[in-house]
Design brief:
This protein has about 375 residues and is of the alpha/beta class. It has helices spanning about 15-25, 30-45, 55-65, 85-90, 110-115, 135-145, 195-205, 230-240, 245-260, 295-305, 320-325, 330-340, 350-365, and strands spanning about 50-55, 75-80, 95-100, 120-125, 150-155, 160, 165, 175, 190-195, 275-280, 285, 340-345. Strand 2, helix 4 and strand 3 (about 95-100) form a beta-alpha-beta unit. Bound molecules: pyridoxal-5'-phosphate.
Length: about 375
C-alpha cells in the first residue's frame, strides 16, 4: 500500500523554471529575485516593507532584536506552539512568559494575556496557530493602550485574514516561515513584514552582519549575523506566492474532505469555517477523546503507511525551556490539547481516496477501544 506522508511540498514547472533562471543568470545571492519576493510579501500581507531571511525563527529573532528587546525584558506568548517561537525569544536573552490558549480557537486567550502584563512586558507574540488568526482586535487593544509591541508569529498562516486584513502587518510586524510544510515554501526560509519600514531596515542590517544599505564593509556598531536568503530560494518563494490563493483553496478543499469523512467519529474536528475570517489551512489537527492511547493510534496508523504528527507538545513541558521561561498560572487547556492532538496527513494535492483511507483506519482504531 502506498505510504501517505504527513506533508509534501508542491513544486510546479513554473517553480522549477524560476529557480533555473536564477542559476542561469549567475547571480546567486543578493540579487533581483530577493527584491521581487520581498515586494510580493509586503503586498500580500498589506504591509509597507518586508525582509526575506533564512527561517521563520530568524524572522522572529530579528523582530525582537530590531525592537531592542533583550535581557531583563518579558515577552508574552503561548506554550501550545512550535518550539521555534520560544527559541527566538530565548536567543535574545529575554524571558518568555507563557499563557494558556482558548480551548476552541487554540489561540492566545486575551484575558490571560492582560493578566500577565508586568512593567517588564515589552512585547506580545501571538501565534496564528494552524492557519487560524489569533484574536488580534483584543490583543491590539490591550497592547496599544500600554505601548507594548505585538509581533505576530504568522509562520503557519500566510494568507489568513481577519475581515479583509491579512495577518502579518496588523501588529508591529509579523514573521513567516517557508519550510516545506508551510503555506508556501522556499526549502528553508522566512520573512518579516511590517508597516514600519525603519524597523525592517534595522532588521535587514542585523540579518546582514550589521551592514546598512550601501555599506561595503560590515558596520562596527551593531553585532549582526548572516540570516540572508539565497536568490534560488527567493525565486522559488516568489513563484509559489503567485499562486497562494489557489493553493489555499486546494488546502481548504482537503480540509473539507476530512471534515466530511471524519463526521460521526469519536474525535474533535477543527471548525471548517470561522465567521468573518479566512483560514489558511496549514495542518489538519484532530483531538482524540479521553482514554485513547495516542501512541498506539499513531503506531497502528504508521503500520498502515499513514504518517501522523504531534502538533504540538506543550513547550513548557521541556525542562530546558521551562527553566528559562515564566509560567505564572497553570496551563490546563494547553496540556489537554498537547496530550490529545494528532496531525493527519495534509497537503494541497492530497487526494480524496487517501483522505478516506486515513479516516477508515482511524474509524477502525477508535471503534476497537
Ligand atoms: C514553522 C514555525 C516557526 C519557525 O519556522 P522555521 O522556518 O522552521 O524556523 C515558528 N513558529 C511557528 C508557529 C511555526 O510553525
Amino acid at each position: 500500500m502506498d505510504r501517505i506522508p504527513l506533508s509534501r511540498p508542491e513544486i510546479t514547472d513554473a517553480d522549477r523554471d524560476a529557480v533555473m533562471a536564477v542559476m542561469a543568470s549567475g547571480r546567486l545571492a543578493l540579487g533581483p529575485a530577493l527584491g521581487r519576493f520581498e515586494a510580493a510579501m509586503a503586498d500580500t500581507c498589506a504591509g509597507s516593507a518586508a525582509l526575506a531571511c533564512s527561517s521563520g525563527t530568524a524572522a522572529l529573532y530579528l523582530a525582537l532584536r530590531g525592537l531592542g528587546i533583550g535581557p531583563g525584558d518579558e515577552v508574552i506568548t503561548v506554550s501550545y506552539t512550535f518550539v521555534g517561537t520560544l527559541n527566538a525569544i530565548l536567543a535574545t536573552g529575554a524571558t518568555p512568559v507563557l499563557v494558556d490558549v482558548d480551548a476552541e480557537t487554540r489561540n492566545m486567550d486575551p484575558a490571560l494575556l492582560e493578566a500577565s502584563i508586568t512593567p517588564r512586558t515589552r512585547a506580545v507574540m501571538p501565534v496564528h496557530l494552524f492557519g487560524r488568526a489569533a484574536p488580534m482586535e483584543a490583543i491590539m487593544s490591550i497592547c496599544g493602550r500600554r505601548r507594548i509591541h505585538v509581533i505576530e508569529d504568522a509562520c503557519e498562516a500566510l494568507g489568513a485574514r481577519i475581515g479583509d486584513r491579512p495577518v502579518g502587518a496588523i501588529g508591529t510586524c509579523g514573521a513567516f516561515g517557508f519550510y516545506p510544510n508551510k503555506p508556501i515554501t522556499t526549502g528553508e526560509g522566512g520573512a518579516l513584514v511590517s508597516d514600519d519600514p525603519e524597523l525592517i531596515a534595522r532588521c535587514r542590517a542585523l540579518a546582514n552582519q550589521g551592514r546598512r544599505p550601501g555599506d561595503a564593509l560590515p558596520s562596527l556598531d551593531a553585532v549582526g549575523f548572516n540570516f540572508r536568503l539565497s536568490e534560488m530560494a527567493a525565486a522559488l518563494g516568489a513563484s509559489q506566492l503567485e499562486r497562494l490563493s489557489e493553493t489555499m483553496d486546494r488546502r481548504a478543499a482537503v480540509a473539507a474532505c476530512y471534515h466530511e469523512v471524519l463526521a460521526g467519529l469519536d474525535l474533535l474536528r477543527p471548525p471548517l469555517e470561522v465567521p468573518g475570517e479566512t483560514l489558511s489551512w496549514f495542518v489538519y489537527v484532530v483531538e482524540l477523546p479521553d482514554g485513547v492511547g495516542r501512541d498506539r493510534v499513531r503506531e497502528r496508523l504508521a503500520q498502515q503507511g499513514i504518517e501522523t504528527g504531534l502538533y504540538f507538545p506543550a513547550v513548557h513541558r521541556s525542562e530546558t525551556h521551562r527553566a528559562r521561561s515564566a509560567v505564572r498560572a497553570p496551563l490546563p487547556v494547553t496540556e489537554q490539547l498537547a496530550e490529545r492532538c494528532l496531525a493527519l496527513p495534509f497537503w494541497p494535492g492530497l487526494q480524496s481516496d487517501a483522505v478516506e483511507r486515513v479516516a477508515g483506519a482511524l474509524a477502525e482504531l477508535l471503534s476497537r477501544r
